[in-house]
Amino acid sequence: MSDTVPRPTLEAVAARAGVSRATVSRVVNGGDGVREPLVERVRQAVEELGYVPNQAARSLVTKRHDAVAVVIAEPETRVFADPFFALQLRGISKELTAHDNQLVLLLTEGRDDHTRVARYLAGGHVDGALVFSLHVDDPLPELIQGAGVPTVFGGRPGWGDGTRDVVYVDSDNRGGARAAVRHLVGLGRTRVAHITGPLDQTSAADRLQGYRDVMGDADPRLVVESDFTPGGGERAMRELLDRCPEVDAVFAANDLTASGVLRVLRERGRRVPEDVAVVGFDDMVPVAEQSDPPLTTVRQDIEEMGRIMTRLLLRSLDRRNTGGAAPDPVRPAPSGEVLPTTLVRRASA
Amino acid sequence: MSDTVPRPTLEAVAARAGVSRATVSRVVNGGDGVREPLVERVRQAVEELGYVPNQAARSLVTKRHDAVAVVIAEPETRVFADPFFALQLRGISKELTAHDNQLVLLLTEGRDDHTRVARYLAGGHVDGALVFSLHVDDPLPELIQGAGVPTVFGGRPGWGDGTRDVVYVDSDNRGGARAAVRHLVGLGRTRVAHITGPLDQTSAADRLQGYRDVMGDADPRLVVESDFTPGGGERAMRELLDRCPEVDAVFAANDLTASGVLRVLRERGRRVPEDVAVVGFDDMVPVAEQSDPPLTTVRQDIEEMGRIMTRLLLRSLDRRNTGGAAPDPVRPAPSGEVLPTTLVRRASA
Fold first, then answer.
1. Band of pLDDT at residue A110, cut at 50, 70 and 90
2. Is the pLDDT of residue B159 over 80?
3. Which residue of B has its CA nearest to A84?
4. Domain assignments of chain B as residue spans, ordered by start
């Protein structure tokens, strides 16, 4: 255990800088109303002594911890296996760092740990939370609301009637899916299949809805449920070829699923796109560009989603902190922000 | 913003369970001295009301937050690109979850953010910290000691004279490197090169030392410094082939580096292992097994390292909490635990 060296105090900094305790405190908390030469002397003393302000004391003044939690409602292993989360975290990390806020990622092994996460959120360790990857029957949103922490959700939450006062950022999953399927139909394909994501997530349900907007629900053999993973994509594609060998196009619910689909088609000797055209979703660049053949897909700006969520949260925390602006009587606060998606054509369709 | 529903209070739970406030408090904080039927009634009321104990109040009693920070002194992008960290986090996450402790991963964009990390650690949000991937001149250890948080380091810290009272868990990097190089020499190779990691990290410096234990420092052209990444491995291998085309074996400082080495050898038409034998380090299973040819490497148990670090930290926190056992007068507390490494033979050497 690193021995706990006594921490330099505010008093020690004041003595070293030759100023009052109050001046040090003001500088440490932002420097308002302190003359520049004094600020400089205090900063130097802070540096020389290696003084770390006590956040608990500091937050008594500012009522802020300058820390935001990120909660991904998936087991820790999936968080690191799926580049989707890395991209979202990249956007969040950049945005929080730009505002000198600490990113606090709360990892779990599974749903049994969600009560503990809520306890941490309720404990006054963060100013707000960004919450991802919720499944319809997940108790986490209730727990988080119980914890009383301002929250922005990633993806449209699937519970209730949608009128609850939640803020979320989402991509246009349904519109993107329609564009993908219309593209396949435009290529003259008549047996267009869809391999879905987990249908208890709104992103997967919305993409299925977009597929149905174009295809109706004529041939139920052409829709196979899967789980957003390459292995799941392989299994679903095998099942699809067994059920309906004449399939000539596949819209896969994400790029990882599409990578599994391409592997099975290669293994079965079907040419892409000549025999079967394939479209993915996400435009996860290393996956989509390096796949064989390179993948036509629906692009969503995952990193930007993370940034926008963060901005919405920080803005709302600022409003709270400045006493809270009166609610605008004309326009209610928007409950969701939906980012556009675009079809990116490569070789697979 | 999710509207902050009023949080159910301790009083509400007491009323629902028909017991006193004090009884609820005792049950919530571990249930000591409360009869089982009462415990049951309180638990039921807690569940029905969705009561989340106030961690701040709770920790006034237990002096614990049941939360441990993990700090990786690398930019967020590297944390997600290098499977090494995912494996370590897996071990930590499993162990913390088994003890109902929350894993709090503090991500940063770079060194400029380390002061903020130290501020968060000093703010009383976690009981202790696990700290990884320190570079020799990194100010983070000082900052963390200033924050006064019990800490276990991953990897032998490179600063000072090594006698400072720090606890760390490491792998036998030097012994593993010796085994790798002896294996290459045993195959009859005479031009055995080493592509190192970043030499401001002890793991890389120790592996170089192990190489020198066997090879001496006869031919300085055979040692090329690199950075533990596939791209770095490619660049270093090109340089090595330019400097010393007659090279017949490469010990790469980790498996990711080795993957870059194999790519360049293939590109240059050198057969592995016939023309050049290659050994890696880590035994990062998907990388090492799926490389072409499968990689001979030095195995370290990365996940187990994470687990052991966590156990050491939790044990030390328990000692603190129970008032601290008197220090053993005969045997001082060990400052480091070093795990064995083993050579795993596959096709590349």
1. confident
2. no
3. B80
4. 10-62, 67-170+304-339, 173-299
**Domain A173-299 adopts which CATH fold?**
Rossmann fold (3.40.50)
- For A217-233, write each residue's pLDDT tens digit: 878 999 999 999 999 99
Interval A225-268: pLDDT, tens: 999 999 999 999 999 999 999 999 999 999 999 999 999 999 99
Q: Is the ipTM of this complex over 0.85?
A: no
Q: Is the pLDDT reported for residue A160 higher than 90?
A: no
Of all residues in chain A, the one with the smallest CA distance to B110 is A97
Which residues touch B98 (CB under 8 Å, ≥6 apart)?
Answer: none
A67-170+304-338 belongs to CATH 3.30.450.40: no
DSSP notation for B269-288: T--TTTT-EEEEEE--HHHH
**Which own/partner contact pairs does A13-22 have at CB distance under 8 Å and 24+ positions apart?**
A13/A42, A13/A45, A13/A46, A13/A49, A13/A51, A14/A45, A16/A45, A16/A48, A16/A49, A17/A41, A17/A42, A17/A44, A17/A45
For residue B268, give the 3-state DSSP assignment: coil
B chain contacts of residue A157, beta-carbon cutoff 8 Å: none
> Tens digits of per-residue pLDDT, B268-314?
999 999 999 999 999 988 788 888 899 999 999 999 999 999 999 99
pLDDT at A276: 98
Q: Among A87-91, A172-176, A319-323, B226-230, whose mean pLDDT is lowest?
A: A319-323
Residue B136: predicted pLDDT: 78
A165 touches chain B (CB under 8 A): yes
- The sheet carrying A277-282 orders its strands as A223-224, A192-195, A249-252, A277-282, A296-299, A342-344
Distance CA B148, CA A50 (A): 12
Of the candidate ranges A162-166, A290-294, B40-44, the one whose mean pLDDT is the lowest? A162-166
Q: Which CATH architecture has domain B67-170+304-339?
A: 3-Layer(aba) Sandwich (3.40)
Burial of B119 per CB tally in 10 Å (0-12, 13-18, 19+): buried
CA distance, residue A165 to nearest chain B CA (Å): 6
User: pLDDT by residue (tens digit) across A137-157?
Assistant: 778 888 887 888 999 999 988
> From the list A93, A107, A165, which residue is nearest B109 (CB)?
A93
User: Quick one: DSSP state of residue B50?
Assistant: T
Burial of residue A349, with CB atoms counted within 10 A of its CB: 0-12 exposed, 13-18 middle, 19 or more buried: buried
Note the CATH number of domain A10-62. 1.10.260.40
Nearest CA in chain A to B320: A1
Query: Which pair of tokens denotes residue A188?
Result: 């003259």
| Cα A129 to Cα A81, A324, A325, B166, distances in angstroms | 22, 19, 21, 34
Question: Is it true that A67-170+304-338 and A173-299 share their CATH fold?
Answer: yes
Give yes or no for B68 touching A (CB within 8 A).
no
